[in-house]
Amino acid sequence: MDARTTDSPEAWLRANRERLWEEYKELVRIPSVSAKPDHAGEVRRAADWVAERCRKAGLDKVQMLDAGGHPTVYGEWMGAPDAPTILVYAHFDVQPAEPLELWTSPAFEPTLRDGRLYARGSSDDKATLFISLAAIEAWITTSGRLPCNVKVFYEGEEEIGSPTLAGILDRHGDLLSADLCLSADGGMMFPDRPDVSVGNRGICKLEFTLRTAAKDLHSGSFGGAILNPLSAMAKLIATLHGDDDRVAVKNFYDGVRETTAQDRAELASVPFDEAAWLSGVGASVVWGERQRTVLEKLWLRPTLEVNGMWGGYQGEGSKTVLPCEAHAKITCRLVPGQDPRKVQEAVAAHLQAHCPEGATISVRLGGGGAAAYEIAPDHPALATIEGVLEDVYGMPCFRTRIGGTLPLCAVFKERLGLDTVPMSFSTGDEDFHAPNEFFREASFDRGLTAWARVYPALATLPRR
Amino acid sequence: MDARTTDSPEAWLRANRERLWEEYKELVRIPSVSAKPDHAGEVRRAADWVAERCRKAGLDKVQMLDAGGHPTVYGEWMGAPDAPTILVYAHFDVQPAEPLELWTSPAFEPTLRDGRLYARGSSDDKATLFISLAAIEAWITTSGRLPCNVKVFYEGEEEIGSPTLAGILDRHGDLLSADLCLSADGGMMFPDRPDVSVGNRGICKLEFTLRTAAKDLHSGSFGGAILNPLSAMAKLIATLHGDDDRVAVKNFYDGVRETTAQDRAELASVPFDEAAWLSGVGASVVWGERQRTVLEKLWLRPTLEVNGMWGGYQGEGSKTVLPCEAHAKITCRLVPGQDPRKVQEAVAAHLQAHCPEGATISVRLGGGGAAAYEIAPDHPALATIEGVLEDVYGMPCFRTRIGGTLPLCAVFKERLGLDTVPMSFSTGDEDFHAPNEFFREASFDRGLTAWARVYPALATLPRR
């Protein structure tokens, strides 16, 4: 069907639905893994694909913004001089797909099963990126214009912590002035109930290597008289949490604000079923700080997680090796009030101070840290977006937070003075960052409708 | 030169030295890697080569002993009815040669450089296997007989833990009755000073997996409220040793005999340079149980070593995963008095008992365990062999132990009632099990002389 035969953006989206779905799958097929240096070409290929798609949607000034890392795709439509400007954020890079053997269908071949499209990046974040762009195309194609000014900022290195985002803002900040950032990255709690996220945790990263000898040794010839780096690493990592499961690193909790009565009221309004949540995860018990609820722990409390730990022989059978090295990767999730650099340094200092005698430790501070972010509860964009979602879903919207990190929120606030509200149609059960990531086909349709409606709704947002 | 023109075994060995050296290299060229299923044919080719060489040496009843694995080559000379019977042990299989890129010359092309013959198996154990056989040939060729009865037992699966050795003893134990086992496998501490090993440690193996959830999770979405299996594994492994670096597993030390005054005297007689040893290892300090010397810890004390430990993301950069599984492989080195099965069970029970709440543990007990072994210090064979070595080297012999495991020692003792004394001319620095394994040409000549002399020396050994 020819797009020009329809007259409203929503009708156009319905009429072109199959083509849009295929285009979205085309984007998902590009293995744009930003963490892997040998995949830089694929990240670039995804950037080119997105830029071309921006031009096709009718955006102007489509260009790559670059500060030495993976590029960001920028485009704009600025034809409404009296209306506010919305900066639309999303990212087209994805997490590594490993372990590949746990995927039911190939990680980069989108496969529809039971209304779910399985592929790495299908949910995080290529679905809502594509939706945000399709809604722009729908408006410009059917109406020749958008109801408000729109700038898109589609990033290529979110999954590695946006290491050059600050550099891009330094170089291209002038391009990016706006009244609000609407983020297509984020996620809702449920596939069939709307929520709006009012904050997210920050992050900092580090990794370390312990060494105890110059080479791997025979465990018979040397075992008992040379320190085993794996046992040493175990003892060291065991010092990072106390018996109360709190992080035992000095100064770790500096600046963390205590949960308020308003926080508790918001948490209480979330339809959270702890038993269902546990069973969805396949875990037997809730873990963590005493006297705090699950949502409080996930949204308002900082963490220290070991993301990887390894050394010695991992193959079939046994190898009687006394290895000479042990390795671990750590990230901390941060809450408002914590400084990512200070937390990173506190953890590094702890590791150095607790390194067992007989081992040397080298700690590498990771880049890409980000502060936590929260929006003022009375920000006018919140009510506007809640209204759009309540219409689309036909039910009340509640407020959530994101336990993960949207680094751009803190950076946009600090550099551009912009508040950010996410409007993603991914839901937390879609296994992003894990094997068999998927996106619900039904969310694709709800997302298209909501994004088609959010541009006119935000046209009345007060300008900054 | 024709062998028949000489009149003593030692003279015959000198006269045939070049031919023997070439034959030894022929054996080394066969890549008899027992660990690789696709090399079974090469292990068989080595067995055939050894069997043919046994026939040529003048042994009778040469045959393959088989219990479903790689075969053992057996042969005998039983022409001295009043003399004792010596069972000569060696193995013709070798470790894998990988990583191949670290070899200076090809792993299976024996190459002489600076008096060292480089090749996989050149030292472990084809050198002394060949020497033991050449000395038999020297005696039978020059004298028409050996001074004592000799049975050879050349194994083809030592490097994979002798999985069918017990089966071979079950089937063919009658063939193997003897008064002493003289092992061509083992090793001396130094290339220019003789020693005799009077014991070796045993081994038991196990591995475990900790699980905390049904799948890998996003560390932002779940971190802080679901137990991290890597932190849990660290805490669990940290419980395996106390602050005093002793193994903290209940009943672990059951049956371990305390170091005696005689042990201390033997240890003190070893020319051991702790500083040189540490610097050879590239370690900064000696680790382990307090108030014990390095040699005591390596030879007379049991250990628990983590040989491998892993979980989560190990690649480049970072991945914000909260993994659902963690894994570790453990071996224990055992000393006389410890039962491998009981130690294995004690460690498994400790792991089960200390498994953190929120995790499930599955422990897999490994096969291939072996008890420790020691020979009585006043065993008459010891003085005899020490005498032979002191003559050949022209200096006093000291007593050592092996921190690693020679499973056959305990098995021969238990199944055949046989004590074992090693008389290998490999030395600990010859990188067996590593790239660029080598054997010293000078050790070849010393070995031939010593093995030519040990058969008559043992002819006076009391029969059992």
Distance between the termini of chain A: 41 Å
Strands of the biggest beta sheet of chain A: in what spatial order? 1-2-6-3-7-17
What is the approximate shape of chain A?
Answer: globular
Compute the gyration radius of chain A: what is it?
24 Å
Q: Would you tell me the overall average pLDDT of chain A?
A: 95
**Strands of chain A, count:** 18
CATH class of the largest domain in chain A: Alpha Beta
CATH architecture of the largest domain in chain A: 3-Layer(aba) Sandwich
Count of DSSP helices of chain A? 14
Question: Strand share of the residues of chain A?
Answer: 15-25%
Helix- and strand-based class of chain A? alpha+beta
Oligomer: homodimer
Poorly predicted runs of chain A: none
Query: How would you characterize the largest beta sheet of chain A?
Result: 6 strands, mixed
Largest interface: A-B, 93 and 83 residues
Number of domains of chain A: 2
CATH structural fold name of the largest domain in chain A? Aminopeptidase
Helix content of chain A: 25-40%
